[in-house]
Amino acid sequence: MHGLAVTLPGGLAENGSLQRQARFRRLTGKVEQALIDLNTDLDRPAFVTAVLAAALERIGDQPADSKRVDDLCVADRQYLMLRLAALIDGEQVWLKVNCGHCKALFDVDLSLDDLPVKPAGPSFPLATLRIEGRALVVRVPTGADQALIGTQSEREAMMMLLQSCIQSVDGQPPAREYIRALSQSAIEGIDSALDDVSPAVCNQLLVVCPECGNKQQADLDHYALTGLHKYFFYEEVHTLASHYHWSEAAILDLPQARRRLYIDMINRSAGLHAPGEAP
Ligand SMILES: [Zn+2]
């Protein structure tokens, strides 16, 4: 899928319906600048929320503010980060892999739109299950849930996640003591019910090391916005400002594609050409 409009694999559950359409802002220099200037000290969930809130125009028929971006499920947020990466830098990316066998470093060519996306189950974002004779309704974790967990220990994070995601037990809000007393197998049951209903974006790729020939799974980081480089971005703005004497504001209003087109023309008239390109 290309362009600004995307269909979420899950969707934002609001007022009893699912908002599955989202729309990115037009990628102008101003949007890129907002993304480049984001505070990188934020923890991962807060950073992803800030990025998506800056880059998205709408989710469903309402503006995409931080609160609504927070309320998207984890897979929707990953999917949106992936689509944003493709908007900024194209569908083709090079994945750097460090071979787990011979330690060689190699690059793998990957097309982002080829990555498999598992759709949500019909009851998304809720799953119902029976555990030890009791009926549970659980909700797929969101960005807000991840943000809440922060730097808690693994056990405490799990308890907080269960507290957020268990909606009811036999029709009643869950008691804290009930959640604390859940057995390991009950927790695994909840986890697997959530996996069934949750969408998922493939985050591993089977690769073959060109040095030793061993197959292995390479991890993909969907949250890494590798296409944004502060220096190169401002270098482009500087080149246009020096050449055409446009104001910074006017240059930042240009869509990225148009800015690149002018850069290309300036380079051509200066006799510079991209590697491998005919003069
Ligand atoms: Zn190897």
Q: Would you write up a description of this structure?
A:
Strand 1 (5-14) and strand 2 form a beta hairpin. It is built from eleven helices and 13 strands. The two termini are 33 Å apart. The strands form five sheets. A four-stranded antiparallel sheet has the order 1-2-3-4. The protein has a three-stranded antiparallel sheet with strand order 8-9-10. By secondary structure, it is α+β, with helices and mostly antiparallel strands. It is globular, with a radius of gyration of 22 Å. Helix content is 41%, strand content 24%. The protein folds into three domains: 5-118 and 201-219, no CATH class; 126-198, no CATH class; 230-269, no CATH class. The protein binds zinc ion (ZN). The site of zinc ion has 8 residues, from loops. Zinc ion is lined by residues 99, 101-102, 104, 209, 211-212, 214.
